[in-house]
Fold this protein.
Amino acid sequence: MKASGWEFRYRFWILLGLYVLGFAAPWDRWLHLDGAGPNTHVWARLATLLYKGGAGMTMGAAFNLVLAAGIALALAGAWLRTWGTAYLSAEVMSGEAMRGEGVVADGPYRYVRNPLYLGAWANLLALALLMPPSGAVFALVTVVAFQVRLILGEEAFLRERLGEAYAAYCAKVRRLVPALRPRVAASGARARWGEAALAEIFMWGVAASYAALGWQYNARLLLQAVLVSLGVSLVARGMRG
């Protein structure tokens, strides 16, 4: 089922609400799914599983391995989002209405139709490490489900707006599974890297926070840095209008 126009217009705030619920996991007050203590986040749970899994890994090495995966996911998400936004433009990426001036067939759009969502999912996986386990499951399921609805709504709009040109593009480029080589020829659009980097401040802030602060093994400190990144991105979003 595709998302409605209302959902598309308020998608940022809907997603923000889902993330907040993932971190807060308010249901745990009654269901007691996540346990208690400072290490009830996914990061510690995964590290403990690796430590006890018989791989001969120390607890410190297990924490580092999970952190390295988080850094890699955060960097991949930030790069993919920035690469896609550079060709789509920040205005279209964050606008409240669906737009379809033409088929974008440059940058990552030559390999996959929805690179921005793939980048967002990589970032979500990184952030889920700081969530309580039940909150991480909630966020992963609800955010991905909602964004799939957005994808279906956007693609239906573009098919109606652009007709055969978009249908031909969809026939060559897969929706969510990137190709190893470009599936369509580049149209020659110019990438706007500076604008894209500003639009993706939050993604880069998450990646920088993990890389710079993760080695202190303090999930609360990392979460505070993520919140600062969110605040900076909201200010930048307001300045863009």
Q: What stands out?
A: The chain has one domain: 5-32+41-240. Residues 59-88 form the longest helix (30 residues).
